[in-house]
């Protein structure tokens, strides 16, 4: 998973990229939670 990869010193770390990664992580977490909810709590 790309979360645990070491920081690339060649890549510029600006605020937009960090915000994009945070939003992407939140979207993945919400998606997984929705799948769990669908499988375990839906009829």
UniProtKB/TrEMBL annotation:
Superkingdom per UniProt: Bacteria
InterPro entries given in the database record: DUF6728 (IPR046615)
Keywords associated with the record: Membrane, Transmembrane, Transmembrane helix
Keyword flag Transmembrane helix: yes
Residues spanning the membrane: 21-40
UniProt protein name: DUF6728 family protein
Organism: Sphingobacterium kitahiroshimense
């Amino acid at each position: 998973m790309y979360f645990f990869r070491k920081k690339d010193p060649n890549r510029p770390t600006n605020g937009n990229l960090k915000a994009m990664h945070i939003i992407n992580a939140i979207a993945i977490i919400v998606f997984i939670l929705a799948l769990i909810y669908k499988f375990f709590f839906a009829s």
